[in-house]
Hints:
Protein name: Integral membrane protein
Transmembrane segments: 29-51, 57-78, 87-106, 126-142
Region (Disordered): 1-20
Number of helices: 5
Largest sheet: none
Helix content: 55-70%
Number of strands: 0
Keywords: Membrane, Transmembrane, Transmembrane helix
Shape: elongated
Organism: Streptomyces castrisilvae
Amino acid sequence: MTDTETDRTPATAEGEKRPFDLGTGPGRVLVWFYGVFTVAAASRSIVQMILDFGRAPLAYLLSAVAAAVYGFITYSLVRGGERARRTALVCCAAELAGVLIVGTWTLVEPSAFADATVWSYCGRDYLFIPVILPVTGMMWLRRARTV
Length: 147
């Protein structure tokens, strides 16, 4: 049996935990938000890189990195299983670090960015959802481990 099959096989013995489906309940809301942010960040970065990459390459590449992280977390939440949960947890932590680092950088040295990124000012242009989303995701993923 592969790891994926093991992750998804219901426990049969009494007292064993059943695998937790990451994309159910509040997890569905996270999947939706991460999916929307994947499209938003990817669209923004692609358009910016096509139209004027030379103007702010760092900002546009950071938006592309954000899109990739969001996409991977979305995939992990949909896929489910313990390995996907652990991977998504690491990605959420990396996402939060990115938001805080880039957000702080844009506050301390705004001239370093000729244009905004998804994570600029801790996601101010996106209603601060980029800083709220990984915290919420990590809370959900940690809860999923204990169920």
